[in-house]
Write a structure and sequence with these properties.
mainly alpha, 112 residues
Length: 112
Amino acid sequence: MNDEAKNSDVDAISSDERTWAMLAHLSILVLGVIGPLVIWLVKKEESKFVADQAMEALNFHIAVLIATVVLACTVVGPVVVAIGAVVYGIIAGLEANKGVYYRYPYTVRLIK
């Protein structure tokens, strides 16, 4: 996709859609998996962008839960996962607020 097509896609995304997508990503700070799941269920028919970003956030939150459980036997593992989740959640929220289709690194997309 060229830059012109990317810019026209970003311009087509409303401020309301960007806000909902940002909330889906930032919900990891408070609601975990529940936040993006509820946003996806409510907004999936209204906005392709919000549905995509909520699903991306949901997949990331599931990966965080799995990593936390797997690393629970170590002292540092869950702390590192939690810090990474917060940092990547904030980055994703900021990118979604710009209208960018953000993809988390190190995430297996279990739900499509």
